[in-house]
Design goal:
- By secondary structure, the protein is mostly helical.
- It folds into 2 domains: about 220 residues, Rhomboid-like fold (Up-down Bundle), CATH 1.20.1540; about 55 residues.
- About 70% of the residues lie in helices and about 5% in strands.
- The chain has 12 helices and 4 strands; from the N terminus they run H-H-H-E-H-H-H-H-E-H-E-E-H-H-H-H.
- The strands form 2 sheets. It has a two-stranded antiparallel sheet with strand order 1-2.
- A hairpin with a 3-residue loop joins strand 3 and strand 4.
- Helix 6 packs parallel to helix 8, helix 7 packs antiparallel against helix 10 and helix 9 runs antiparallel to helix 10.
- It is globular.
- About 25% of the residues are buried.
Length: about 290
């Protein structure tokens, strides 16, 4: 009975939330386990079909546009595919910790706009660069490194002065930690493939521009928000009450802007519990 309740609690706390992070990580882990299980069966000669190589070919994003036309789903599936358990582990850890920092301040719609935008933009750039002979190409693209880079870049721009405590190093600014990681990844990609390196760089820029635009009041994710259909209703309202409601909206927006400015200057940890609650409620209302 206790194990049943534990499973139910885990399911509720993990998947019955507004966060898309558990679903992304679960999909990546499941795909990794399935293809490597069949790889093991092929290696020990229990099956004759190499499903692992087939998955790499069909799920990963090809560099050729002609091949992409034959498997258009690969623009969505390529972030699910990993060949190394260490790459999968580190990417999932980065997505979990930094992604949740993102969602502590903003909503899941904005998170998905950055993540999916980085995924699509990175994939299209990768194929486009490979059409140019001056760039060294790569046959396929897989792993969630590109959309993850967009999330990391956006979060570092959102809370640049926020700190994380690292073993033996103490408190480290989150923008510095992310910058070092993205820099190392960028160098590795350029050494492997110029087309992937350039795509990675531009996806980082995408995350940065998204957050700068958001801080200026331009939320790109609003194009995905549902517009509620309102029924026509006549309401008789006094001029004083109407003015009061308008002033309350303006005052609330000024309060949110002030909180975001405080985060930018001193980090998320500088907020009071009341300010954190106000920001959390505002993100849910969006």
């Amino acid at each position: 009975m206790k194990s049943t309740y534990a499973i139910k609690d885990f399911w509720k706390e993990t998947y019955k939330t507004d966060s898309p992070i558990p679903f992304i990580i679960s999909a990546q882990v499941i795909v990794f386990l399935v293809i490597h299980f069949f790889k093991l069966l092929f290696d020990i000669e229990l099956i004759n079909v190499n499903i692992y190589d087939w998955a790499l070919q069909k799920i990963s994003l090809p560099s050729s546009i002609d091949q992409f036309i034959k498997q258009p789903w690969s623009i969505i599936t390529y972030p699910l595919l990993y060949s190394s358990i260490f790459n999968l582990l580190f990417d999932c850890l980065w997505l979990y910790f930094i992604g949740n920092s993102f969602l502590n301040l903003l909503n899941s719609r904005q998170f998905l706009t950055v993540y999916i935008g980085g995924m699509l933009l990175g994939g299209l750039l990768f194929m486009s660069f490979n059409q140019l002979r001056i760039f060294s190409g790569s046959e396929t693209l897989y792993s969630a490194a590109l959309p993850l880079a967009a999330i990391l870049s956006a979060t570092a721009t959102l809370i640049p002065r926020s700190e994380v405590r690292l073993f033996l190093l103490g408190n480290v600014k989150i923008y510095l930690l992310i910058s070092i990681y993205l820099g190392i990844q960028l160098i590795q990609f350029f050494l492997h493939s110029t087309s992937i390196g350039l795509s990675y760089l531009l996806v980082i820029l995408y995350g940065f521009i998204f957050m700068i635009s958001l801080k200026k009041g331009n939320d790109w994710s609003q194009i995905f928000s549902k517009k509620e259909k309102r029924k026509l209703k006549i309401v008789h309202q006094s001029p004083n009450k109407k003015y009061h409601n308008k002033s309350a909206v303006v005052s609330n927006q000024e309060l949110i802007d002030g909180i975001l400015d405080k985060i930018s200057a001193h980090g998320y940890e500088s907020l009071t519990s009341q300010e954190k609650e106000t920001l959390f409620k505002a993100s849910k209302e969006d």
